[in-house]
Design goal:
Largest sheet: 7 strands, mixed
Order of helices and strands: EEEEEEEEEEE
Structural class: mainly beta
Number of strands: 11
Shape: globular
Strand content: over 45%
Number of helices: 0
């Protein structure tokens, strides 16, 4: 079983930046992908960005060019930096762990990000 703990959400002004962190603990299997998804009120959960154990990244078009996902395999951690934040970025952001060969996909509890003046 894997547990994910997210941090770094909050209220940010438009044009600002934020950095989300997620730490995984428990039975972590490699290779895997870790990443971030988000869900705005009344909308489905959507991909923001993912990164594999060897550093292959995937970004949603909505954040491409203004976000960076990174990870520290030694710390079982993944980070998401988003710049030039917009009100449309307002959502609950969820960390996800997805092993490729064994184990289950796991979600964090979510962290609220609100972009507003």
């Amino acid at each position: 079983q894997v547990q994910l703990v997210e941090s770094g959400g909050g209220l940010v002004q438009p044009g600002g930046s934020l950095r989300l962190s997620c730490v995984a603990s428990g039975d972590i299997f490699s290779p895997n992908a870790m990443g971030w998804y988000r869900q705005a009120p009344g909308k489905q959960r959507e991909l923001v960005a993912t990164i594999s154990t060897i550093g292959v990244t995937n970004y949603a078009n909505s954040v491409q060019g203004r976000s960076t996902i990174s990870r520290d395999n030694a710390k079982n951690s993944v980070y998401l930096q988003i710049d030039k934040l917009k009100p449309d970025d307002t959502a609950v952001y969820y960390c996800n762990y997805r092993p490729f060969t064994q184990g289950r996909s796991t979600w964090g509890q979510g962290t609220q990000v609100t972009v507003s003046a």
